[in-house]
């Protein structure tokens, strides 16, 4: 299924501009030219890769390969090949099978990652494909979250099931799924709370929601989508591990890549987490949630400033 593919590499180039600037400032000749790599060059390269949040494991491996004199061709090609080797196995689009109705997506993540916005963009994308979509406002502890989801539902022309603030989230989910079953809705997107300061209670609440989902729709949720903020770096990885251990994350949507110079975090996520990367957010427009492509991501990252 082609989810809002559009000008993918163009969006990636624009969204990764800040990360490219870090990689290429003072390193252009090193990465793209034939500059002899001395000890100072190793230090410069290590610093740039770490600043881009690509992670110590990847950086250490690249430096070791260079020091062992296993480099062939420009340094840029070596790094690109290694990145693609890491990212390609995690490239996995979200497929909505025809025989599963409704297909239930439980969306999780801490507050501030762009979770509700991502749900709205997903709803828009699925509606553009001709699929019926229902949104469920199960983040009942923030009235603003319910209002925001309603706003996105209006923009995507998707109905929203909600109750008053502080209602039982599992009860909202129960109502939403029964509504979806009655109307034969193809896709249900469930927004959930993300209050990390009460993380024990949060995880228990998410487990309860997941149990209710499976009782109403056997086999569901079919996707537990974790929304991560690219700007949070190592904290985002720690959050991902916590959610995965608690409820079993099946896919990742990485948001705010356009707002960070640390776009290399995507490489780190792929390297350290065995979870498919479904989508990346490269802007604020409703169609700026894109399916992840390892090839396009890496090529966009290594487009020299000034090149198209």
Overall outline:
elongated
Summarize model confidence as the mean pLDDT. 85
Q: Gap between N and C termini, in Å? A: 28 Å
Taken as a percent bin, the fraction of beta residues is 5-15%
Can you tell me the residue ranges where pLDDT is under 50 for at least 5 consecutive residues?
Answer: none
Question: Could you describe the 3D structure shown?
Answer:
An 8-stranded mixed sheet has the order 3-2-4-1-5-6-7-8, with helices on both faces. A hairpin with a 7-residue loop joins strand 7 (277-281) and strand 8 (289-291). The chain is elongated and about 65 Å long. It has helices at 8-15, 17-24, 28-32, 39-51, 56-67, 75-87, 115-128, 143-156, 169-183, 199-216, 234-247, 265-272, 294-301, and strands spanning 103-108, 133-137, 160-161, 187-191, 223-229, 251-255, 277-281, 289-291. With 308 residues, the chain is α/β, with parallel strands linked by helices. The protein is built from 13 helices and 8 strands. The longest helix is centred in the C-terminal third of the chain and has 18 residues, at 199-216.
Which terms would index this structure?
308 residues; alpha/beta; eight-stranded mixed beta sheet; 13 helices
Give a nutshell description of this structure:
The chain is α/β, with parallel strands linked by helices and 308 residues long. The chain is built from 13 helices and 8 strands.
């Amino acid at each position: 299924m082609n989810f809002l593919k559009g000008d993918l590499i163009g969006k990636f180039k624009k969204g990764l501009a800040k990360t490219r600037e870090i990689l290429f400032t003072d390193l252009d000749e090193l990465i793209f030219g034939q500059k002899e790599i001395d000890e100072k060059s190793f230090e410069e390269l290590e610093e740039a890769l770490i600043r881009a949040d690509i992670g110590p494991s990847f950086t250490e491996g690249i430096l070791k390969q260079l020091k062992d004199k296993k480099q062939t061709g420009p340094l840029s090609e070596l790094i690109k090949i290694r990145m693609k080797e890491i990212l390609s196995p995690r490239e996995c689009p979200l497929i909505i099978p025809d025989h599963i109705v409704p297909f239930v997506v439980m969306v999780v993540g801490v507050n501030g990652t762009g979770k509700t916005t991502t749900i709205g963009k997903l709803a828009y994308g699925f509606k553009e494909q001709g699929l019926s979509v229902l949104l469920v406002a199960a983040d009942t502890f923030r009235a603003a979250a319910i209002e925001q989801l309603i706003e996105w539902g209006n923009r995507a022309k998707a109905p929203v099931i909600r109750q008053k603030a502080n209602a039982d989230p599992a009860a909202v989910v129960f109502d939403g799924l029964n509504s979806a079953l009655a109307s034969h809705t193809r896709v249900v997107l469930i927004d959930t709370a993300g209050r990390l300061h009460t993380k024990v209670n949060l995880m228990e609440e998410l487990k309860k929601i997941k149990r209710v989902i499976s009782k109403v729709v056997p086999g569901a949720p079919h996707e537990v989508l974790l929304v991560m903020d690219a700007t949070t770096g190592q904290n985002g990885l720690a959050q991902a591990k916590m959610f995965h251990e608690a409820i079993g994350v099946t896919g990742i949507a990485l948001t705010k890549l356009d707002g960070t110079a640390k776009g290399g975090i995507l490489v780190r996520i792929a390297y350290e987490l065995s979870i498919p990367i479904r989508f990346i957010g490269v802007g604020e427009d409703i169609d700026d949630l894109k399916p992840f492509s390892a090839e396009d991501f890496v090529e966009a990252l290594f487009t020299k400033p000034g090149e198209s």
